[in-house]
Amino acid sequence: RLREEAAHQLGEAAVDPATRDINYDQIQAEDLTDEQLAATLAMPPMMAERRVVFLRDVERLGKKARAVLQQVAAAPPADLALIVTARIPKGSRAAFYRDLRKVCRTLEWTTPRAAEIPGWIHDRARRRWKLDLSPAAAQWIAGAVGSDLSTLDAELEKLASLPADRRTDADIRDIVPRTHRIDRWSWLDLVASRDYRRALRELGNVLTSERGVGLVAGLVEQHLLLGLALDAGPAGLRAALSETGRGYLSWKTNAYAKQARAWTVHELDRALRVLHRADRHLKSGRGDHAVLAETLLELGRAENAAR
Predict the structure, then answer these.
(1) Lowest CB count within 10 Å: 79, 84, 250, 274, which one?
(2) Do 114 and 186 touch, CB atoms closer than 8 A?
(3) Residues 211-224 pLDDT 10s
(4) Domain 184-306 has CATH 1.20.58.340
(5) What is the C-alpha separation between 230 and 173, in angstroms, rounded?
(6) How far is the C-alpha of 121 from the C-alpha of 97, rounded, in Å?
(7) Domain coordinates of the chain in residue numbers?
């Protein structure tokens, strides 16, 4: 869905609108023989400077047709804009894809890391669908839908079709139901806000959809961000995220700054040591629930001792 959208945008930008009907070919790779593909790519534009060929799903081309595509892509005619899409099979080592990358300008879609999903939703909603989602709404959608970007985008399109007064956080929770009580991001926020009792109560629920190692990794990252927020404030944190390639988290800088007020630098340092110890225990084979419960209790004891 997103790959198709990007390819269409490239095609529409390259073709002359006045001659679009005769100079813009959209074809499925599986429908072509090598002779048909060669003839299509060799056809000159009519009454325009450029012709556009959008070839979908080139992983379905036969061996001879792949050779034709590689030859044209390596030395394309000046009057041809060639757009191809492919879903590269997992683990594939085929030279075909490697060779295409060398001669083409490539855009790749990979599934974001878990920490990136709400940020992707927030940004996509604003840029593509003109929706101003709250952080809580973005996290709710991520927890309900998962990490498939096409499915997430379809949910955002559904929300965008609603009247503006039907897009509150409460409406979104009704429209996009989820099957588990709490998502990973809400649980990480409980720990970062030092609400250890509730985090402990919800531990069993969050572990139905998450692994302990992933949760601890998320907690380490979040506590490091709290340290940055404590030191530099929201503006400094936003700048640091941009400089380190983590701009996907900038939408939540105000929330991090608010959470950071509950901490001192010394307390964050101690919490990170506790989390690193938890990571070692998990990787040694101890059970997720036991390690995380012990970690929450230790963090809670440290907070009480500091009072």
Answers:
(1) 79
(2) no
(3) 999 999 999 999 99
(4) no
(5) 32
(6) 29
(7) 2-103, 118-175, 184-306
